[in-house]
Amino acid sequence: MIKNFIKVAFRNLVRNKLYTTINVLGLALGIAACQMVLNYVLHETSYDNWHSKKDRIYRLIQEIDRPDDFLKYAKVPHPVKPLLLQEFPEIEQVTRIYPSAIIGGKIKMKYQEQQYYEEDIFMVDPNFFEVFDFEFLEGNEATALIHPNSLVLTEKSARKYFGSTSPLGKTIDYNGQTNLEITGVIKHVPENSHMQFDFLIPMEYQRDTWVRNFNYDFEEDWMWSGAAVYLQLKSGVNHNQLTGKLPTFVDTHFRGEKQERTTLDLQPLTDIHLDSDMKGEIGISGSKSQLYVFTIIAMLILMVAAINFMNLATAKSVKRAREVGIRKVMGARRTQLIYQFIGEALVIALIAMLHAYLIANLAWPVFNHFTDKNLSFMAFMTNPMILTGSFGITFLTGILAGVYPAFFLSAFQPVRTLKNDFKGNGSLSLRKILVLFQFVISIVFILAILVVGNQLDYLRNKDLGFNKEAIITINDQGNAGKNFNVLKQRLLTNRKIKDVYRGQILGGTVWSNSVVPQGFHDDEAISVSMLYTGDNFTDLFEISVLEGRKFDKSIDIDNDNERCAFLINEAAKRRFGWTEDPIGREVQWIGGNDNKTLVKGKVVGVVEDFNYRSLYETIEPIIIIFSNWGHIAVKVDTENIQESIAFIRDEWELQAPGWDFDFSFLDKTLDAQYKKEENLSQVIRYFAGLAIFVSCLGVVGLVSFIVEQKRKEIAIRKTLGASVRHVLSLISSGFIKLVLVSSLIGCPIAYFLMQDWLENFAYRTELGLDIFVLAMIGNLLIVLITITSHTLHAATENPVKSLRQE
Question: What is the pTM of this model?
Answer without folding.
Answer: 0.82
